[in-house]
Design goal:
Structural class: alpha/beta
Radius of gyration: 18 Å
Number of strands: 5
Order of helices and strands: EHHEHHEHHHEHEHHH
Helix content: 55-70%
Strand order of the largest sheet: 3-2-1-4-5
């Protein structure tokens, strides 16, 4: 990956990689190692992460850019998008989207709304990666955006494994607070990352 490519960032991935470090340093390091330029759907930035001080810092510096509906959704695409949204919503939530609600402004909690919107945007914009720790993201990607030019979902665990393959300068001490908190229910993943990054620490001593 010599040329930098844009990757869509989901709310849960962003929270996980910043909150336990109490800052943006790890996020920026991972994005740089992976050659990714982070972008975010306007719904995620303005609704799901509204008021997030770390995101505001990144937006102010231009390190993250926000993509609006008008940048990828033409009037001629709206019928296709609205059908996709309702179908994806039903598949993930196991009930119909409320007909009285507006698809573009609907902002309930816990219904994978950011994932549904972000994945469609990624496909329309030609972005290869969607960085998300939400299991529903993989379900949606496989169900709607597989095949040629597929959108690939990567979790924080995946991203840290990828960084190791790119000769990262990150060490176990740098990722320990995040990994041990975010992946506390997946001790196997913590063990994997600790082993990999501790071995790297030994090499660089």
């Amino acid at each position: 990956m010599d040329e930098k490519m844009k990757a869509v960032i989901d709310a849960d991935f962003f929270r996980h990689i910043t909150e336990h470090e109490r800052g943006i340093k790890l996020f920026l390091h991972v994005m740089s190692d992976l050659g990714m330029v982070p972008v975010m759907h306007e719904f995620v930035a303005q609704t799901e992460l509204k008021g997030n001080t770390y995101l505001q810092e990144l937006l102010k510096s231009g390190s993250v850019s926000v993509v609006s509906y008008t940048e990828y959704l033409a009037q001629s695409d709206k019928e296709e998008y609205e059908e996709y949204f309702r179908t994806a919503f039903e598949r993930i939530n196991m009930y119909d989207f409320p007909e009285e609600e507006n698809i573009y402004s609907y902002a309930d909690q816990g219904e994978s709304l950011g994932e549904i919107r972000s994945l469609y945007m990624a496909k329309k914009m030609g972005y290869l990666y969607f960085m998300s720790d939400d299991a529903d993201a993989r379900t949606l990607a496989k169900g709607f955006f597989a095949g040629r030019n597929a959108v690939t979902v990567k979790t924080l665990y995946d991203a840290l494994i990828m960084c190791k393959g790119r000769d990262t300068t990150l060490r176990w001490k740098d990722i320990n607070p995040t990994v041990t908190n975010v992946m506390r229910t997946r001790q196997d993943r913590i063990s994997d990352l600790k082993k990999i990054y501790s071995e790297q620490d030994a090499i660089h001593k």
